[in-house]
Every structure is written in C-alpha cells, then in structure tokens.
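Posting here for the record, re: geranylgeranyl diphosphate.
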Amino acid sequence: MLEKFYDVLREEIDRYLDGIIPEYAGNLSLITEPMRYSLLSPGKRFRGILNLLSAESMGGKKEDFLPLAAAIEMVHSFSLVHDDLPAIDNDDFRRGLPTTHIVYGEDVAILAGDALLVEGFRHIANNLKFPPEIKLKIISDLAESIGWEGMVGGQSLDVRISKEESCKEFIQEMYELKTAKLFAFSLSSPAIVLRSEKLNELKQIGLELGVAFQITDDILDESSSAKGKGGKEKVNMLCISGIEEARKRTFEAYKKARDDLQKIEGDWSRIIELIDLMEKRSK
Ligand code: GRG
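Prediction output follows.
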C-alpha cells in the first residue's frame, strides 16, 4: 500500500503505541515484553486510522483522538493474541511473525492479552482529554462493541456453533459481532465527542464495512499459500457462497459504505480512500 496519507497515519499510530508500554519494567518486563511484542508487530492499523480520519472528517483534531485510536489498537491486539491461542484458532503466525503464545508460552500470552485489554480502557480514562460524560459514553460503547453483544459474542458463535448451522443461519450475525462492531465503534465514536447526530448512521456504515472486511479476510485466507498451517479449520462466508459471489458481495458493501458516508455532512474523502485500500488489500 503506497498511499502517503495512510503511511503517515500508520507511522504516527505506531510511534504513539511505542510510547505507551515501557520496554523495561523491572521484574514486570516479563509481561510488558509480550504486550509490546504483540502490540507493536506490523499491523495495518486500519481501525485506528479509521477513527482518526472519522474525527477529522467531522472537524475534529487528529491529535485529540490519538489516545482513542491507540486504545482501539490495543483492544484489537488483545483479541488477536487470544484468537491465536491453541484453544481458539491455534495459529502459529500473525503479522508475519510467530504468535505471542509461540514466543512466550500460552500462559504468558493469555496474561499479555488481558493486560492489553485493560490498558486500552485505562488509556482512554487517563489520556483522552474530553469531558467525563463523553469519556464514559466512549468507554460504554467500546465495552459493548467487544463484550457479549459484540466481539466476544461473535467469537462464542464461532467456537460453539456447528459449521452447518453457522453457514446457514449465523454467519452474518457472527461477522457483525466478532469483527464489524469494533469497526462500527472506530468509525462512530468521534461522533460522540463532536456531538454529531449521525452516531447511529456511522455505526451502521461501520458494521457494513466490518462485514465486508471480514469477507475480504476469508477470500485472502482461501487464496493464501499459508492456508491450513497450524490453524483450525474456520467457518467462513465462502461456505454459503463461492469466491466470486463473496467478491461481488464485498464490492457492493464497500460501495454502499462509501455512498452512505457521502450523504453525511463533512469531508469524507480520506476515509473513502481508506475504504479503497481495505478493498484492494492483499494481506
Ligand atoms: C476482544 C473482548 C475480546 C475477546 C476475545 C478471541 C476473541 C474474543 C475474538 C477474536 C475476534 C477476531 C480476531 C476477529 C477477526 C478480525 C480480523 C479480521 C482480524 C484481522 O484484522 P486486520 O487484518 O489485522 O486488521 P492487523 O494485523 O492488520 O491488525
């Protein structure tokens, strides 16, 4: 991905994340090191960038939202560490590197994930310079997007519902919960701060975008040469539709997200470019 604005923002988020958890913390380096390992590995930072660009699109200042974008990336990193564990997806590689449990052991990886999740919320409480009632609403919305009505709920369907049932009945719900709710939060939370009336519209667009992003993930997984190495067999959208149908569905969903954004007051041109990058991504 060569777009300059994207690289600038990704680097800005990476730099900011690098300053949050200490490299050396005495005896506790045994937990800060794996936290840093997973958080600072080369992620695409789409959710954090979506958050910053959404704020800017509605007239907010990027600098004011960096702590929130970073918190979102911390929570996301946590979910990846736990998702990769032997009891869940059992993956050996993530972001081109050995997964956290492969490097540090399963026990430490569980704890590092827990600590990243908690740190994300602490970061919002301590570093976001908005009024307390705004921060409370942000914390509540983030918790909803990753709790039982969000990511954890979606992941529960993923691990416990049979492949046949998931394919037929649950896949849309599963994708909305496990992936798209955090996208919805990333896109919509600046509207809380900026007191925009478009909070619910943005959540809806974020959901659409997140489902499309997850289907793109399925398509990439299907065509990846690393497929089947270590990981458990996953239920994905391709079980109800072939790869061409899935491509068509994502094409339409990304287009709808772009069209719907343009109906909202503000300058959404950068996010529209970001959606193009999500659509064209190869990893
Ligand atoms: C998070 C509260 C909480 C509980 C954990 C394990 C779990 C429950 C949820 C897993 C959800 C999950 C990992 C969904 C997959 C989402 C997805 C498409 C991840 C890949 O995102 P990218 O491509 O990754 O943005 P990078 O590495 O670029 O950040």
